[in-house]
Predict the 3D structure of the following.
Amino acid sequence: MISQLLNILPLLIWFLVWAIGGWLIVVGFNIPRREQMITGISLGMVLQLWLSNGFAHFAPILSAFWLGAFATLALGFIFAWPRLKMGGKGIFLISWGQLASLALIVYLLPSLASASIFSMIVKIYRQPP
């Protein structure tokens, strides 16, 4: 049980680094507070993947992904610096409904995709010759 948790821990840390970085970038702009969380997570993911793609030309792939995540976090601190200087209170407003919807989508879409691919393969092989 503990070893399984230790195996997934780097993935969770990596996710938090680029998600917080994207969220901080969005905080620097004039986006309504109710939209900041989901927009920040989305922007963080896209920016991290884009930067990782660039870093992968010069570094091993695992290092490139970590560099992309930390570069996203650094950009987040740069964009959010004016708000952080003013005290930074209320920067992170968590929308639990949006977070639950995101978790449900992340869980359901891969399982739906694998089910549909599996059913197509079964139909192809069950056809008579």
